[in-house]
Amino acid sequence: MADQHVLLETHEISKSYGSSRVLSNVNFRLDRGESVAVIGENGAGKSTFAKILTGVIRADVGTLALNGRVVSFASPRDALREGIAFIPQELAYMPHLTVAENILLGRWPSWRGLTTRGAAIKQARAECEQFHITMDVRRPMAWLKLADRQIVEIVKALARRARLIVLDEPTASLSDQESRVLFDILGRLTTEGVGVLYISHRMDEVYRFSDRVDVFRNGELVASVPPSRTSPAQLIGYMLGGEREDVSQSARGSRLTAPGLAELRQWRRDGLPPLSDVSLSIAEREVVGLYGLRGSGTELIAEGLAGLHPEITGELVVGGYRGRVFATPVVARRAGVGYVPAERKREGLILPLSVEANLSLLILDQLSRFGAIRRRLERGRAAELARRFDVRFRRLGQRVAQLSGGNQQKVLLASRVAMAPRLLVLQEPTRGVDVGARVEIHRFLGTIAERGCGVLLVTSDLEEAVAVSDRLLVMREGRIVGELSSANRTQANAIALAAGSSAVMASEP
Amino acid sequence: MTDAPVALGTREPAEQVAAVAAGRRENLIQASFQILGIGTFYVLILVFFAFATPNFLTYSNTLNILSNVTVIGLVAGGQVLTIISGGFDLSVSGVVPLGAVTFALLTNAGVVTVPAILAVLAVGGLVGLCNGLIVTRLGINPLITTLGTLSITTGLAYTLSRGVTIPFRNPAAGVLADRTVGGLSWYVLAFALASVIAFAMLRYTVFGRMLYAIGGNRDASRLAGLRVDLLTVLVYMLCSMMAAFAGVVVSSQLLAGSATVGADAALSSIAAVILGGASLTGGVGGVPGTLIGVLVLGTISNGMALMQVPAFYQQIATGVILLLAVGFGRLRAVLSGDSS
After folding, report:
1. How high is the pLDDT of residue A271?
2. What is the model's pTM?
3. Domain A259-357+420-507 - what CATH class?
4. A341/B283 touch (CB, cutoff 8 Å), yes or no
5. Per CATH, which fold does A27-242 belong to?
6. Which residues of B touch A390 (CB under 8 A)?
7. How far away is chain B from the Cα of A275, in angstroms, using its nearest Cα?
8. ipTM of this predicted structure
């Protein structure tokens, strides 16, 4: 390997946030025309690494060398000037400008300060054709499909002479067909000597398109192998590490479960992400986990149960409710579904209101007479809920915005449990909460279920999915692709199912 | 829901009880702190005018201020509800004259006062219904929606009155203005009553709490299964009805209905609500603060008039005071490390 092949090299890169280390001593290298897939669990450090390469954030220590020269980026703009482009998950573009204007953003051909539309279109077209991409550059960006917008972003990078393109989960929201088109284009770029680094969660695309797979675990680069010389099982082994399996089993034994409390039949949705004929049932006293990668459709199931997706077709039985998928959140609430959304601050809590008002929000009818709130009763009830869920606060009248993330999450959970739901649906209940609160919340889920409520835990946190649920359902591309109960409920099996390599199932003890 | 605890808290019950008791106390302090700033400011204004002009601190002038603020006060009482629920209503500036003209036409047509007032309230309710439905069903934002209905209602008022002032043929129709109870006009009492009702509703009813919730976080309220759309429609209806009633009061005061009255209702009422500590993003605010806000505006214009300052300067002063008050509020929020 002669040195002039090397495009990018990192030396001992580390990064910490406060006391938690997210990257340690990463030595990475990428050659010209090489495509590297980066895989790893949530929180393994993949995105942080990509952001350091592209100047979004800075490493604490370590160096970055591009074409053999040590570089340091203060911003993505710096990185782009040196030829490294970042295509994030959330694309940043001007929706009301045309494709041509987006491609040439900031560099519009002009004549004495006036933009010249004809020249811009011609130039943008030339940029596209250079990489055999056909696209109507005169259309507004907003009219394009997501996949095409992504391609425009890539062309935009290439128009700035990018030599390395870094993509963060580019296919998460794309259909199979669209991903294929994207990888075709990326493949053509590599033959021109452009380097490609992409973060992925899907086994099939790692095998379909990459010269090398790099695996991150707990902030370390633990493996770097060509896909031809490794198996999906081995890759998953690298991602999880050896020692984690034994702790992942739930402490709770299999519980005697009553017959179905909630049943979803043939849920179906066209469009992205799709759902195809999802059926599942949740028994009383049961915690059912639903795990899947981004775009697999798990969040649709949770939101559908909350009444946010009336367009989903199919049937639903919850307690006394029997009929079509809930049309509105009001119907869902009346049927006895408590919903804990993923975005606690944006979708869950009423931040300007007090802890007390948030706790009592859904049970005000029980706490009032003729429309007048009985304040003493409300305060007592709120205090009781706060105690049961161990919410730490200075006073009940304190605004909920002032609590820590973990305590806010407990308030949210308590407010939903207060309404005595038949079915409690939670989405990412421990995202962004501290470890202590996480353990407590997991314990609460068990006790809530034991009192006769069904619990559906929708999570992309692998450890949580495996540890907390009695039964774990795994989704991929809008389908339930497997059910893992007691013996085979391991992190390795779950991720294998979610990422689309069933090969691992047999190799598990 | 049974009473068995889900989990035992680590906090001792006694400690918890103490925290609850302390909470009740501090809650009061917090609520009063919100209006403390504007309250202090109002006292300063009173002191200033008391020294600056001899006729200010008299019984008759106090009554004068009260009757002058009634119209804006009634409108602000409705406005504070919409602002707390996360919207706002510009159309009150059209509904006040529409109410005034409708009331004059009805009484001149021989309708007795009480049914006439009810009819005017119905007209107001209808406008509010339109506002609420447009905002919730069509998803058009409150600014555009109520700007549109402001124009429509103003136009309607001019059309109904054919652009001229309609004097009451029967002077007894000015009953609200003429009759007094203990020296106070009926409409001042009606204003006081409406304020008490609005206050109690916001603080002690489920409906009021819901308004704070949907204003504090509309998405979260919807996801939680609250009837956000219904509440929004109701709140716009209440606001318009208050404005329409304010129109009745104006025409009683003038003994005539005119399309030219109340044009400043929207801006003055919003200014009063904001002065009173509410936030245009919703979820914050209250009636006591709003009342002080109304009094601040009314007292300044009264005091300046007594000092024979031209009316245009009053407008300038009002604007400066609004910006100062809101600016101080922001400053305090930033200093206390609370960026929301």
Report:
1. 80
2. 0.80
3. alpha beta
4. no
5. Rossmann fold (3.40.50)
6. 7, 9-11
7. 21
8. 0.83
